Amino acid sequence: MLEILHAIGPGNWVSGGDVVERRESMQELFFDHPVCPEETEEDWPDDRQLYAEMVVVEGERLIGTAMLVVDPEREDRPARIWGMGVLPAFRTDFIIQTLEETLIRAAHLDPAYPFIEATDGALVPNPYSEIEGLRERRGPLAA
């Protein structure tokens, strides 16, 4: 069974084992299997703010990792999902979108950021920001 777990904060997945080993495995996953390969060329700016970081695991096996960050110098779209890496066998729209949605909810992002840029470039409404005329989708859609 797949689980999405926090990678930072109290009771997080990273601190539940060998911290260095788990952090290294997250970094390797991002560099070896990035959802957005161009992100592997980016440096971490001094003013970048990390709002949420999560992992997808299957038992003890790390399947995916991603962060929700705010880069103030990106004035047009400062909030975004960044650093996502997912093993190829698990790289489906469902896994990616579920991880993104979980990060967005967990981040409790400042309402001043009305949208978060997803890995596919789509702008996802910040659920903590009130945007007039925008209906919030409640729960996943199913057929």
Automatic annotation (TrEMBL):
Name assigned to this protein: N-acetyltransferase domain-containing protein
InterPro entries in the cross-refs: Acyl_CoA_acyltransferase, GNAT_dom
Molecular function GO labels: acyltransferase activity, transferring groups other than amino-acyl groups
Entry's transmembrane regions: none
Annotated N-acetyltransferase domain residues: 26-104
Organism of origin: Celeribacter baekdonensis
Signal sequence, start to end: none
UniProt superkingdom: Bacteria
